[in-house]
Automatic annotation (TrEMBL):
It catalyses: a neolactoside IV(2)-alpha-Fuc-nLc4Cer(d18:0) + H2O = a neolactoside nLc4Cer(d18:0) + L-fucose; a neolactoside IV(2)-alpha-Fuc-nLc4Cer(d18:1(4E)) + H2O = a neolactoside nLc4Cer(d18:1(4E)) + L-fucose. GO terms for biological process: fucose metabolic process; glycoside catabolic process. It is an enzyme of class 3 (hydrolase). Residues 99-439 form the Glycoside hydrolase family 29 N-terminal domain. This is alpha-L-fucosidase.
């Protein structure tokens, strides 16, 4: 038999490696293209999300070409498959009911999961920053629900969105054509983290994946439809997570369970969610991947409302998260895990967007709200009046925290990675206020009263350090004639009143019918501690 020389052997090995890669790519391609949009019959208009135009090169960009590029670099596909097998799949062993035998473990049912104590850091942190950033940031028109407004059935802003597309884009433009323009060219994770740190926030939540299905990390389950494959060519989740934690902030990830136009999800939906192909192939593997790779402090779930939690396998995932995940002792979850779950089950309750009940709640809750009154994503057409003033932002924060909630304040960066000046200004103003008054916010707990009965512009918090309890009256408007009347506090012999940032004790008198009258001395403009919302600290109250 003819004996091969070294060059022939090397050539044979390379050929075998190439054939192996081709086989892997073939099955990936078959999976991604198995369900065609022409087969859908639910009334939506669909694009092919895997065929886009690279506007920088003026040529077609599609998944076939991208996979061919991967073939040219066999090491990339080998590492890609290795990551799936070694890092993610072994971690997906779903817990069973037998886990209830161990009293330190949580069974996959809401009764058991709701008994898990909320990690202390979340209640102490109080303030977070929410970031809505994705392909919707490219058109930056209407809202982050741009695709739905353009293509969705019974969309509320369909006429305006279609007119916008007709005016600005060619007739055959698809949603996926926005992907190459999601450049993030000016994104600097360190600078973002510095902004968030200076805002006074203690945690940050980034949209890892919104309803469009595009992932801001190189997900093994969103091949060619992620921030490393097309668009920024960066791992946005990884970069921001590292920078945020460098500033000693907690890092959470928003993940949409459902996707607007994923064929497997739409097929499950047509089957009345009696099948779980999308959940098993996409939604749940992504969540396990996010947890194992990035170890988030918060899993902020969304997009759950069309199906029950049994379809999503929510309790199985959360039980694994609490029992066996690398963040089992520190992770926090919200309540968006099935259409009958919201505002009932989860680590904390969020109920609805901008949830702000104005009264004390029995369970820990969060008010996720946005500085732009009309959108969570960046809008180029927004006017200054569309954004919350700092006064309104502080009012919402104080109301929320007085009633036992956390506040998650949303901003929407632009497609190029810049944060608009109005967002930067609001965050800077908030940070300026918290530097003076953070004592009344962080580590605080609700007091006996949330809102004063006499002065509706005053909200209360309480903080206990050692044996001393301090009650904070946060006045959102400067007291008329420098006199502040409060009905809630009951004074005693050792009651002391100061204004945070102005340490001179203030004179006060007890109201015969209960309450206190505080006389505020004249304070010059240069000595006044802050520009908005003044905090009066009271110690030695008999009802503290």
């Amino acid at each position: 038999m003819h004996k091969m020389n070294r060059r022939q052997r090397d050539f044979t090995v390379k050929c075998l490696g190439l054939v192996s890669c081709l086989i892997i790519v073939f099955f990936l391609f078959r999976y991604l293209t198995s369900a065609k949009s022409s087969e859908l019959s639910d009334g939506y208009e669909y694009d092919n999300p895997f065929e886009v135009v690279d506007n920088t090169k003026k040529k077609q960009f599609d998944i076939k070409q991208h996979l061919q590029n991967v073939i040219d670099n066999p090491l990339e596909i080998k590492q890609h498959v290795k990551n799936i097998i070694q890092e993610v799949l072994p971690q997906q062993n779903e817990p069973t009911e037998s886990s209830s035998i161990d009293s330190n473990r949580y069974s996959p049912n809401w009764e058991a999961l709701d008994k898990r104590p909320l990690p202390k850091w979340f209640d102490e942190a109080k303030i977070g920053i929410f970031i809505h950033w994705g392909l919707f940031s490219v058109p930056s028109f209407g809202s982050e629900w741009f695709w739905w407004s353009w293509k969705g059935k019974e969309a509320t802003h369909k006429i305006e969105t279609k007119a916008f597309m007709k005016k600005n884009y060619r007739s055959n433009y698809t949603y996926a054509d926005f992907a190459p323009d999601f450049t993030a060219e000016f994104f600097n994770a360190t600078e973002w983290a510095e902004v968030f740190k200076n805002s006074g926030a203690k945690y940050v939540v980034l949209t890892a994946k919104h309803h469009e299905g595009y992932t801001n990390w190189p997900s093994a389950y969103s091949y060619s439809w992620n921030s490393l494959a097309i668009g920024p060519k960066k791992d946005l989740v990884g970069q921001l997570g590292a920078a945020v934690r460098e500033k000693d902030l907690k890092f959470g990830l928003y993940h949409s369970l459902y996707e607007w136009f994923h064929p497997l999800y739409l097929r499950d939906k047509r089957n009345n969610f009696q099948t779980q192909d999308f959940v098993r192939a996409k939604a749940m593997p992504e969540l396990y991947e996010l947890v194992n790779v990035y170890k988030p402090d918060i899993i902020w779930s969304d997009g759950e409302w069309e199906a029950e939690d049994t379809y999503w396998n929510s309790t199985q995932f959360i039980a694994w998260l609490y029992n066996d995940s690398p963040v089992k002792d520190t992770v926090v979850t919200n309540d968006r895990w099935g259409k009958s779950v919201r505002c009932k089950h989860g680590g904390f309750l969020g109920c609805n967007d901008r949830y702000n009940p104005g009264i004390l709640q029995k369970r820990k809750w969060e008010n996720c709200m946005t500085i732009d009154k009309k959108s969570w994503g960046f809008r180029r057409e927004a006017n200054l009046k569309d954004y919350l003033t700092i006064e309104k932002l502080l009012l919402t924060m104080v109301e929320t925290i007085s009633c036992g909630g956390n506040i998650l304040i949303n901003i929407g960066p632009a497609h190029d990675g810049t944060i608009s000046a109005v967002y930067l200004e609001r965050l800077s103003q908030m940070g300026e206020w918290l530097k003076v008054n953070g004592e009344a916010i962080y580590f605080s707990v609700p007091w006996n009263f949330q809102n004063d009965h006499v002065n509706q512009h005053v909200w209360y918090t309480k903080r206990v350090i050692g044996d001393q309890a301090s009650v904070y009256a946060i006045a959102l408007k400067w007291p008329h004639n420098n006199k502040l009347q409060l009905a809630g506090p009951i004074t005693g012999d050792i009651t002391n009143v100061t204004m945070l940032g102005y340490n001179t004790p203030m004179k006060w008198t007890a109201d015969p019918s209960g309450g206190i009258h505080i006389d505020i001395p004249f304070i010059s403009y240069k000595d006044i501690p802050c520009k908005w919302a003044w905090v009066f600290k009271m110690t030695g109250l008999t009802n503290s």
